[in-house]
Amino acid sequence: MQRWFLLLLVTLVVAMLFHVNAQQADPRHDPRNAVRNLDVHPELEVSLFASEKDGITNPTNLDIDHRGRVWICDVMNYRGNNGKRPAGDRILILEDTDGDGKCDNVKTFYQGRDVDSAMGICVLGNRVIVSATPNVWVFHFDENDKITKREVLFSKTGAPQHDHSVHSFVFGPDGRLYWNFGNTGHAVHDQHGQPIVDLAGNRVNDSGRPYRQGMVFRMDTPWLAHPGRDSTVSWPDASKGPGAGVNFETLAWNFRNNYEVCVDSFGTMWQSDNDDDGNRGVRINFVMEYGNYGYVDEMTGAGWQTKRTNMEKDLPEKHWHQNDPGVVPNLLHTGAGSPTGICVYEGTLLPKVFQGQMIHCDAGPSVVRAYPVTKQGAGYQATIINLLDGAKKNNWFRPADVCVAPDGSLFVTDWYDPGVGGHAQRDLDRGRIFRITSSVQGKGMRYVVPKHDFASADGAVAALKNPNLATRYLAWTALYEMGAKAEPALAKLFHFPGLGSEKPTARLIDSVSIDSRYRAQALWLLTRLPGKTKHYLDHALLDEDDDIAIVGLRAARQQKADVLQAVRTILARRNVTPALRRECAVALRGFDSAEAAATWADLAREYDGKDRWLLEALAIGAGKNWNAFLEQYLRRGPGQSLASKPVRDIVWISRSEATPTLLAEAILLPQLPVDELPRLFRAFDFQKSSPSKNTALAKLAFDAFGEDRRQRFIVSEALARLNAFDLKAHPEYAAALHKALDQTRGTATFVELVAKFNVADRYPELLALAQKHPSEQLGVDAMRVV
Fold it and tell me: pLDDT tier at 13 (50, 70, 90 boundaries)?
């Protein structure tokens, strides 16, 4: 027996060695074949920048500094392999010193167990932010890349060794940091382990009060919030006020694993989200500020498979609760996958189809894609174009992140593995980095990094236009610190007619000859000039370019300018587009004045019953003042009848004290289409418990009681939501209840009614049912009640 076992063991070992050797011998795994194993977009050229032959293993996230050097998180200690690299995972700097487009120098910037399974890296001047949950680290370094200080930015933020925790930080055009975590992030704590309180006054956690699951955040860059102060990260005591001193905001929530967020020059946020693996529900989102994105039930936290009224038919819509009121719609569904890094390409080197668009890695199907978007109503629509595809030739290609270099080329990290991460890492020794350029530039295109003069305003403005975010950071910082000295150069980039006090007028800008994105980058800084905020906002809000007007409104909110006046200025324009209405609606969030309510009501009356993006924006804007806003909407102007679908939609999404009564009135409309009944009843689930809600449901349950299919549905749905009440305290419903009991005698509904309202004098009838149907569910339920 022992000899047999030994023989079996030897056989297994030999088989394993043979399998490993076979893998090693497979030509697909040879780095020399890495590029030919990819299907490449015909207008692009791809080259291998680095591989395991350069000493890298498994690159997760990357960033590229202003010198064109590639910084990567090189991960081996991941999940089941945790500890395989005893010295810890590494932060590496890869450099092409001769400009031939290939790495020829690899430097270990840092190695340690405290960066094991790092999932994010962001280089900002002489600092680099590394996301390695449960901590987010800030490393300071000198001109020789020697670390001079290491400190914690956030602690106790995310489950360790998990892909769904904190991801990469990104520097926004407004000078702020954007970042996110997935649904194992749970909460945000400062460097001392104290809970962060955001500007809305909420502790940032996933308790459902009010946030759930994955979230997106924005905050001041700590060392830029107050120029000249000590560069050390320092969080003020949360007791001094919400936001913890750096204007910390929770921007959106209820995602599953929103792997990274990217921000374009207009301040618009985009990201992907991973479905429950295998459910073909991966999505791409336009992130509307303060939006709920529907991974779980907003009120109860129930998962998407929990039965609910008006449940969606298609799996992706069902997965993200797309039929629920208060859930922002998805931009695009991409099917099955494991989405990872994303960026916005704002360079000019690649073909026009990619310019200004998201570039995204999806490790599951082994693909790097672009999602060209166009405006549609108050939102967007998108298509899919593949840049790199390894599925047909070598699906070990697992793109993990993508970043724009200073020359406008793209770099992509390849985790390179037979799997996609999750809970396994089967290949520990291989990883690749690819560089993408334009095929029209010719083969063997060199990697030439432009030089910038950050000391002069003109030089810094030129650098601000660079598509590489590390370069923009240095330019933004230099211009910000120059203050008024930078104004002429920024005004020129904005194409402002002069620096005087000209009266604002609407001007038509030739979007072909003048890049709106450059103008937006200038505007963010111009509105931060001391004493000049209103001056530049007044011009921006009247600009004929909608995107510039939107930046003006967003800047007004961030600079705490007169936001209501900004909204009025936009709404007085010659042509108010749906996108402008969306931004105005969101901007009204938190205002409780009569003027704000009247403005919101005017915006709501522009809703046509079709544009879900605008409807959700209106809900976001009214979110904290539904009582006043809805009341103003219903009593101002003609045509505000529940017989109108746009009005019913506004009521459906509302959360005011009057909403339950209005929902009941709408449900009882004789002309109401039957297919609207489920969605109106589902809206009851988002109303807080209150006497008015119970009264409305009781009215539906008893006043509408009848025999036809429509009435039975109404009664059934109302009873399911109706809280039990004392019949002696509500004699007006006693007779109706007993009538309903008489009509349902001998049915499951009868048993349910007796149980819910504790109708003791009907217990003998329940006993009779139990005796008559002892082996049936009806009899079992009746006996259980007795």
Answer: very low
> If we measure between CA atoms, which residue out of 407, 364, 369, 410 comes closest to residue 388?
369
| C-alpha of 165 from chain center | 14
In terms of DSSP H, where are the helices of 559-644? 563-571, 578-587, 594-604, 612-622, 626-635
Query: First CA to last CA across the chain, in angstroms?
Result: 63
Rg of the chain over Cα atoms, rounded to whole angstroms, equals 30
Residue 150 falls in which region: left (phi positive, over 0), alpha (psi -120 to 50) or beta: beta
Strand 385-389 relative to strand 332-335, pairing? unpaired
Q: Cis peptide leading into 210, omega within 30 of 0?
A: yes
User: What's the average model confidence in pLDDT over 131-137?
Assistant: 97
Whole-number average pLDDT of the chain: 90
Using the predicted structure, report yes or no on whether residue 387 has a pLDDT greater than 50. Answer: yes
Residue 17, CA atoms < 13 Å, CB-side half-sphere: 6
Burial class (CB in 10 A: 0-12, 13-18, 19+), 712: middle
DSSP 673-692: -GGGHHHHHHHHTTSPP-HH
Average pLDDT over residues 636-641: 66
pLDDT value for 511: 39
Q: How many Å apart are CA 390 and CA 128, to the nearest integer?
A: 31
Distance CA(766)–CA(757), nearest Å, equals: 14
Angle (CA) 607-608-613 rounded to 5° is 60
Token output for 386: 């593949």
Region 676-690: what's the mean pLDDT?
97
Name the band, by pLDDT with cuts 50, 70 and 90, for residue 575: very high
Q: Which residues touch 492 (CB under 8 Å, ≥6 apart)?
A: 461
CA torsion sign, 306 to 310 to 315 to 318?
A: negative
* Complete edge-to-edge strand list for the sheet that includes strand 261-263: 261-263, 269-273, 282-287, 332-335
Peptide bond into 134 cis (omega under 30): yes
What is Dmax (Cα atoms) for the chain?
Answer: 97
Determine the Cα–Cα distance for residues 601 and 587; give it in Å rounded to an integer: 14
User: Which of 327-336, 417-426, 515-524, 570-579 shows the lowest mean pLDDT across its residues?
Assistant: 417-426
